[in-house]
Amino acid sequence: MVAHKVLCHSNAHTEPRPMATANTYVNVKRVFNTQPEVMGFVINVGEVVNARMMTRPLMTVLLSIQAGLLLSFGVMMSCQVGGRWGSSTGVNNFVFAGFGIPFGLTFIVLCQGCELITANYMFCTFACLAAKPEDRAAEIKATLINWVVCWTFNLLGAILHFVVFAWQTGLIMTVAVDNKNYADSGGALENNNKIFYENSAAFQEHFNNGDFCSTGSNKYGNICKLIKAAKAKCTQHFGTALIRGAGCNWMVCLAIWLQMIATEPISKFIMIWLPIELFISSGFDHLVVNEFLIPGGIIVGGSYIDSRVNFLNAFWNNFIPVTIGSVIGAWFLVFPFWLVNKDGWEAKLKREAEAAGAPAEKLTEA
Q: Distance (Å, rounded) from C-alpha 260 to C-alpha 208?
């Protein structure tokens, strides 16, 4: 009988340590990665993202559009289900948060390559911290370029998804103020996906008294969700949006980190779902989710409810402060985790270098 060494993971912040030797024929399979190992994975992703930005920029553009599209599938499901389900705010928020958006993020994570800007705030920052002093300036340059490109094309992907898959298909209808068609809107095929009102005052009254949102067992609940979200986000204070963006992306980056601890798909999904459910139900602002909700709310008729629902206010009162907050939120995770796991990560690299027979170089400077 052969004695096998069994590894014990008693503390996720440390490397696996040997337990007492046992006589067994059972193969022990690791069920999670340690924190220093996860930090190594995150650094590797950041380095790949930055290298791709500088050597294959078109690939970064395509992967950023893809990320915007994939997350928007989840947001659209949240509107279609959560926007129509739940008689109370709490139930509605829980359903909106839990059924759709976490699925979109899971698709992005399991695609192993799609570039979501909120995640890149974490990945690229870790890559900059881990870079050698002589390479750090180039890493920072690549990071800043990536953030601009990824931000822009995530937005394009989100708007493209709404226009093509939600609006043009009629899955989410549009409010139209047109007295002529209001009188007879059933004759033309192009009017099938529109809800006509004689004037904006008539729509405002129908919307504000709750009749529009409750029509036909919440048939138009998805439109209401978009318009209410767009109005709230286009009219909120700059500082409020910044703080909500920070709280959101702290949880998003935690979701990415936690799923890297897991080693099999079901556990990865659960680790993603928990923080995402938490921050959306709580009311925080996710940048790319907002890049779907706000343009969607404007397109379907939000400006009829409030003239402040427009793209200028979307950028100034939401996209810009939420972007700043998202960077700060990512750093809430990055810097503490770097300080906690840096020594373990460097020790792991040193052991690997020694095992390979190569001299261990100085990895990074404190």
A: 45
Residue 293 has what pLDDT?
96
What average pLDDT does the structure give for the chain?
Answer: 86
Amino acid present at 2: V
- Residue scoring higher pLDDT (13 or 155): 155
Tokens of 31: 């069920």
Residue 24 corresponds to which amino acid? Answer: T
Average pLDDT, stretch 80-100? Answer: 72
Q: State the Cα–Cα distance between residues 315 and 317, nearest whole angstrom.
A: 6
Q: Are strands 194-197 and 174-177 parallel, antiparallel or unpaired?
A: parallel
299 DSSP assignment: I
- Judge whether 322 and 242 are in contact, CB under 8 Å: yes
Which residues sit opposite 174 in a β-bridge?
A: 194
Backbone angles phi, psi at 19, to 5 degrees: -90, -175
Q: How confident is the model at residue 140 (pLDDT cuts 50, 70, 90)?
A: very high
Sign of CA dihedral 65, 69, 72, 74: negative
% of the chain with per-residue pLDDT over 90: 57
pLDDT at 1 over 80: no
Asked whether 151 and 323 are in contact (CB, 8 A), the reply is: yes
Domain ranges in the chain are 36-173+220-353
With 0-12 / 13-18 / 19 or more C-beta atoms within 10 angstroms meaning exposed / middle / buried, residue 346 is middle
For residues 230 and 296, the answer to whether their CB atoms sit within 8 Å is yes
The length of the chain in residues reads 366
Nearest alpha-carbon partner for 92 in 261, 283, 249: 283
**CB count in 10 Å sphere of residue 136:** 16
CB-based contact 39:338 (threshold 8 Å): yes
Q: Could you tell me the two tokens for 335?
A: 């810097």
**226 by DSSP, 3-state: which?**
helix
In the chain, % of residues over pLDDT 70: 83
CATH architecture of 36-173+220-353: Up-down Bundle (1.20)
